[in-house]
Structures are given as C-alpha cells and as structure tokens.
Amino acid sequence: MKRSVSARFIAATAPFLLSLLCLAFAAAGWRAAGAAFAALTAASLPLSALYLSRASGRRARPAPSPAVPWETYLSLLPAPAILADGGGRILAANEAARALCREAGRRRGPEPGDSLDEAFLPPYFGSWTLYLEKARREGGSLGRDLEQYHLEDRSGVCRVWISRAYAASAGGRKEDLFLVLVEDVTAEARERAALREASEREAGIFESVPVRIAVLDRNFRILRCNRPMQEWVSEAMGIDPRELEGLPALDIMPQEFRAHWKHILRRVLVEGRSFEQPRVHQQVGGVDYFHRVRLHPLLDEQGNVREALLLFEEVSEYVRLERRLAETTDYLNLLIESLNDGFYAMDADGRFTFCNQAFLDMLGLARPEELMNRQPQDVVAPEEVDKVGRMMERRRRGEKVFFETFLLRSDGVRLPVQISSAPVFRGGNMVGIVGIAHDLSERRRLEAMVEQSHQDLERAYEELSILDKMKSDFIAVASHELRTPLSIIKGYADAFQFGELGELTPFQMEKIRIINARADQMTKIINELLDITRLEEGRLVGKRWPAPVEELVSNAVSEYGNQAAERGLSLVSSVEEGLPPVSVDVWRVHQVLENLIGNAIKFTPPGGTVEVSARRSSEEGMVEFEVRDTGPGIPLHEQKRLFTMFYQVETDTTRSAGGLGLGLVISKGIVESHGGRIWVESEPGKGSSFKFTLPIHEEE
Hints:
The structure is a single chain. This protein has about 700 residues and is α+β, with helices and mostly antiparallel strands. Helix content is about 45%, strand content about 25%. It is built from 20 helices and 22 strands. The strands form five sheets. It has a five-stranded antiparallel β-sheet with strand order 2-1-5-4-3, sandwiched between helices. Strands 7-6-10-9-8 form a five-stranded antiparallel β-sheet, sandwiched between helices. It has a five-stranded antiparallel β-sheet with strand order 12-11-15-14-13.
C-alpha cells in the first residue's frame, strides 16, 4: 500500500518539480536548458495522467478531468505552450500562448477544441499538422530552430519543440498527445549573428594584420596561428604549420626567453599582466631579424586567464633606421665637435640647450651644464645686450641674422665674434634657434697688422716717391749736363774725321772714329734716360697726327739699309695695300721701329734676313706692325722679362754692344700710350718676331 502511494505521489509531483526547474533555468537566463525542461515537463504530463488514471481505475474511482492538471502544469511554463491531440485539436494552452495569439492579431487565444493551425500562432509556421505527423513518425521530440515570425510591431526568430506522448482514452486505447512549446530566441539569434560577424571579422583581422600572432591556452600551448606566424615558424625553425596546434609556446620562442620562462608565465597567467620585450634578435639564413615580442592575457568574465596572445611584431626595418639615425647623429655630433667655430642651439624661449666644445672654450667654461638654460644676454658684454635682444626678435620673426658682437668670457675677457644664426621651424612654429660663432680675434689681429703695414707702405711710398723724383731730377740734370761736353766732343771728333782741322794719319783717324762712335753711344744712352723720365711723367708721346703706314715703314728701313749691308744681312719690307693712315706721334713711332730694327740687326748673324711689315690687325680699328729676324731666338723664360727696365738677354752680342736695356721699355711705353700693345713671338733657333699695334686714324 505504501509503495503504491509513493508511486502515485511521484507521478503527481514530477511535472510540478520539472516545471519549477524550468522556471529556475528561465530566470537564470539559460534558455536552452529551460526549453529542454519545458519539453520534459510537457512529456511528463500525459504520462503522469495515464499512470494516475490506471491507479485510480484499479481502485474503482472515476478518472479526473485531464484538463484541470494540464492547464495547471502548462501555466507554470514561461514559454507559450499548448497541448494538442493527434489531429491537431487543442486540449489545453497556457496564458503565454494566448498572449502570443493576441499579439499576432487574433481576437481570442487558443481554447480547447480549436484547431492548432487556425488558432495557435501566426500562419507563417506553415501547417502544424505536418509537424505533428513528423513527430509521430519519428516517435519522439521534434525540434525546429530559427523559425522567423513577423508581427505588426516587430519581427524575430523563435524555436519550436513538439513532444509526443500517450494518454488513455475512455475505451482504454492509447491516444497521441503532443506538447507544443515556442521560445522567442530573437535576442539569442541576434547575439549569435553578432558573434558570428565578430568571429569573421576577428578571423579577417587575425589573418590580415602584418603582426605574427599565436593564440595560446592556459597551459601556454598553441591553439592556432595566423598565416604570418606559420610562415615565420616554418622559415625560422623548420616546423611544419600543421604541427603547431598543441605545441608548447616555448618551442617557437627565441632562445633568450628560456631562462626566464617561469617568470614570464607567472606574470601572464597568475598576475594577469602583459609581458613585452621591445628588441629580440634572431638570425635566419645569415639575415638579422628583430621582433617586438608581446604576451597579452585574455580574461573571462570572472577575471581569470582563459587564453593568451603571443605577438611577434617585426621591427627589423625600424631597428635599421634607428641605427642609421644613430650613426647620422654620431656623425653630426662628430662634425659639430670638429668645427673650429662655436656651434650652439637654443629653444623657442632663447635658452641654450646644446653647444660644442669650441663654444665652451670661447666662453671659458669647462662643462656644458654651466651654459644650459642661460640666455644670450647673459654671455655678451653689457653694451651688447640691446643689440643681441634686437637680433633675437628678428630671428623670432623668421629672419636669418649676421652680426658682430663681444662675448664676455668667464675670466672677464671680451672676445670679438661674428654670429651667424637662423630660426628652426616645425609645423609653421618656431621651435628653436641654431647659430655659429666665429672667433674674430685672429682676424682683428691681422687687420691691425694689415693696417699697420698699410701705413708703413704709405710712408715707404712717400719716401720712394721722393727718391724717385730725386732720381728723375738727377737723371734730367745729369743728362743735360752731360749733353754739353758730349756735344763739344762730338763736334771736334766730326771736325777731325772730316779733315776740317787738318790731315790725320790712318792711326789717328781710326781713333777719331772710335771716339765718334762712343760719343754717339753716350748720346743715345742720355736720350734714353731722358725718355724714361718723360715716360714716368706721362709726357713722352706728343701730339698725334695721321701718318701713312708705308712711309713710316720705308723711312725706318732706309736708315738701316747701309748698316744691314755692312753686316751682310738682307733688310726687306712689305706693307699691305690699302691700309688707312694711323693716328700717331710720328717721331715716337719712328723711335719704336728704330729700336726693333736695330735689335734685329744686332742679334742676327751674317747671311740672315730682317723683315719689316705692316698689315691690318685682327683687332678692330688697329694696324699691326712686325719686325722679324732669323737670329738665335729668345728662350721662353726670358721673353717674360724683355720689357722690364735694365734687362737684356745675356749673349755675346749684348756684352759687346753695350746699352742699358731701356729700348724695349721705352718702345712699350710709346705703343701703350697710343692705345696699342706690343709683344714678342720667338723660339730658340728659329728667330724672333716683335709685333705691335697702333690705332687707325678716325676722321672727325
């Protein structure tokens, strides 16, 4: 008896207990579990009713109406629920099912006896009869997920369960019963869609980022790697990407991490803090690679580490650029330190932030700290403060400045410097000033020496001018004084030579000729000295007249015809036809031709030729004269000195002929006074050619 009572008690209370569990899971937010227990509750209802009816039949009691317990049990379910027979006729429904029908636009909820297709739920689910038939064929529960529904004010997704059970009819036959449960899973579906989208986005980012990533479990074993990490592990360590899953993370870590791996694990797993190593060097195939290695813990809702991210970010190019920057910086620092001039830098407020050793030496300071954060006004002479302030304002306006000032050394000595300074702009704003200070001490000393030398030279020039005038005066006086006795000697020598003072013996006549020749030579020397004096005074050339070129050449050649014949030389002349007259002082041009023809005759050996010619010059408005000989020629190193005073080419002829070496100097002065030029062309052994130009006469 007791066993029968216990069985009946369990059969009666089981649906109730399952309903309580269903409500508990629903309140906790576990929708799937709640729906599953709702289905179990629905399945237990007909079974419980069947058992109780049989037990009551054995006791000869009338069977209770099944509608009352079904309605009670269905009201405990949070989701819309309905009990139907095998033909789709509604036996019972809870309030949630009625509310759903009202939301779908039905005037009333499903009542016992209504058709499931017509009364319960909107028509978008299709034919419920087909669903019930399918559940009957499969002999169990039928679940249908993600059925969409569309109401007037909203749309969503629901999940449908159909559970088959049996119930005894009045005649003792088994009848099919179906419990239909509907759960609105719109929020869950949206969360799943968002999660799926996030997963796809995460996968896209996971594979597309240039960082090498591995996901690790709590035991620091690899769960998955992105493609860059797989390629790196394969290249650097020869590990097949298919073997990475489950591999300890330490196997792909650089060697330097092994000694500290336990501390890294504790930091990430226990303390939940990230770990980062900014520079990790590895060499693969002779190539240096650098990575920034990071380990980030991924925490769950309770703050526990569920996974970890291992990231290898390649910074090889950054390291190379960093090294190049360091090398460039070292080079610039070396360059700045090697400057003889002082270099400095200031911030936007005009305070010193950097300087080289040369600038410290200028100020007499030992350490850069003694200068830092000081302003330029603090290191210049007091009278220069205003000037330096004005220069600072100009630099703030974007101007480059160059000025001289005096630095005040730490020992009180004033140091003259030249400042070259410019502002530094970044993004349109002035961020600082750089400048160079050049020590002017040596230049000032040299300037003083130059000034002193200039004064000394001026005094020497004045003294030389006085001496030169005294020399010119002496030459003029001496020449005039010598001319008188020479004229008398010359006169008596001519009288004796031409028999005006009686007959002379041959011996006496020879001596008289020598006296006469030496007198002529002395007269020429005196005349040349006087010409030099006139040349220095700028009065050697007189008034110019138009003169035919042919007459100038023929007159000079005719005077030296006998002398050339006596030396066995051929003296010829040629003048280009149609030459215009030249504007010259005839006597002085004749003197130039005499000097050049005389020198040519003097230096040309017997049998040679002296040619005097004139032609139109390549210089516009000039006529070119030339005296060419077939003498020994003049070395190049002596050609440059021919037109200097008292210089003669050293030969046996010059030693025997005598002279002061003034003829070419006077000739040069005469030609240049006419606006022409004179030069020589010669090669040793091939003779010499003296040429000069004179201006063509222009009619007024």
